[in-house]
Amino acid sequence: MNKIVSFIILFIAVGLAVLNTYHIDFNNMWADNSRTAIYGVLVSLIVILILVINIQSLKVKEKLK
């Protein structure tokens, strides 16, 4: 996966995390819709972490060439 694709997916993951954050009802966190939004935020954060690691590894790979 090259850098451009990684940045596009990273942008989408950040957007989904923000979107799901707005759907969380902080008064009733464990209602069905809020629980789904919380899971969506957690999954988006995991994807962001994996993509940041991937981008950093691509930078190291370029320096080693």
What does this structure look like?
The protein has helices at 3-22, 32-64. By secondary structure, it is mainly alpha-helical. The protein has one domain (3-64). α1 runs antiparallel to α2.
Instruction: Output the number of helix runs.
Output: 2
Series of H and E elements: HH
Percentage of β-strand residues:
under 5%
Number of domains: 1
Work out the number of β strands: 0
Which term fits the overall shape?
Answer: elongated
Q: What is the rounded distance between the termini? A: 17 Å
Structural class: mainly alpha
Rg (C-alpha, Å): 15 Å
The low-pLDDT segments are none
Q: What is the helix fraction of residues, given as a range?
A: over 70%
Furnish the topology, listing elements before pairings.
Elements: H1 3-22, H2 32-64
Task: Output the keywords.
single chain, mainly alpha, elongated, 82% helix, 65 residues
Quick overview:
By secondary structure, the protein is an all-alpha fold. It has two helices and no strands.
